[in-house]
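Researcher: Next sequence.
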Amino acid sequence: MVDRATLPDKTFASRVDWNLLRTFVEIVRAGGIGAAARRLNKQQPSISAALKRLEDQVGEQLLRRSASGVELTAAGTALLGLCEEMLEAARMVPHQVAQATKRVEGIVRIQLISAVASPEFDDSIASFHRRNPNIHIEIRVSPWRAVLDALEHGEAEIGVGYDSNVRSSLVYEPLFVERQQLYCARSHPMFGHRVDRLGELKDEGFVLTGEDELDTITRLRRRYRLGTRENGRAEDINEAIRLITLGVGIGFLPMLAAADAVAKGRLWPMLHADTEPSYDIFLLARAEPSRDTATQLFLDEVLRRHRAQRRA
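Model: Next structure:
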């Protein structure tokens, strides 16, 4: 005997009031019924009544009131995820329609750190251009803090870079984990040898990357007093590779950026593999609900490809 109470309600989509779903999301985002009422410019009893009607239609309690506001039940958590997906799909409708009718023009401004090596990101740019040949793609390279500032100030819409903290004004999507190594040139006495104790290198001449140096590397250097003797400086990773390769000094470089010089025998990785510093490189965007169509389509392209790759 089949328990009909456990069967899916095939009429739910036609019965549910979609405005109630939006109100539910606003309650959760605001952190309470009163806060949601103020945000929506409505009376608190009307918001409470909307929540009660939605719970009646779903057949489950969605929220519990607490001293701090509201807490999601298991049913509420499941519904919230579905509601956010629906709202995101609805928000993308004008962008996708514009793309389908080939009416998309504009500029996508991307600001990133130097020497980003990400096949997925490159593939996204190529695919995006094939789909939207009339959209101009502009790329600027700058130190990582300048990438974050440009996004916050509206000077760029998309960023690729590093952050040692989390800024509430930005959204972060991990693109890949980057690793760095300490390199020396073929002319250096340590070429072909590994370093067992970093402190032994405190008197070595270094090539530093200035404002482009990540906090992870700065903390490591300071811990072992590395780089106090500065022989060279380059704000761009590719130019730092040039100086290190020419024997100006030793220095830290992203491994993917230095891979070609290592393969050609021009650079030598001095650290053991288990001591290589690593960190996340993020796809960054401003945390705002409305973006121009060109920017939104590009962001969607990168995220779609990246998430598909992670599921593979």
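Model: The chain is about 45% helix and 20% strand. The first helix runs from residue 12 to 15.
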